[in-house]
Backbone:
């Protein structure tokens, strides 16, 4: 697969399955992780799209995200310490890996 110059990849891994099924998708520059997943047909539970509800709460397995100065109000300090993110406002500059088991069923 050839990557576009303004795109990065997200690897979605289902850690609840024995074989750790994974899917790789592209995220365009400036696009939130949620927007990228929805654009590519990945069903992720979401509601508010502004980090207030926490429904899209997802474990970040590898890499770093950026909230672009926005405050993830739907994410508790404990959830953040445990490695969870809110894809609805998160962007990334490098490839990341998310655990999709919470919302892929």
Residues:
């Amino acid at each position: 697969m050839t990557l576009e110059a303004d795109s990065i990849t997200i690897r979605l891994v289902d850690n609840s399955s024995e074989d750790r099924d994974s899917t790789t998708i592209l995220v365009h520059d400036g696009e939130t992780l949620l927007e990228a997943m929805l654009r590519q047909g990945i069903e992720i539970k979401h509601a508010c799209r502004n980090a207030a509800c926490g429904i899209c709460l997802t474990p970040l397995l590898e890499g770093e995200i950026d909230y672009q100065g926005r405050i993830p109000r739907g994410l508790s300090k404990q959830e953040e310490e445990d490695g969870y993110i809110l894809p609805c406002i998160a962007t990334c500059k490098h490839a990341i890996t998310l655990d999709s088991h919470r919302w892929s069923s």
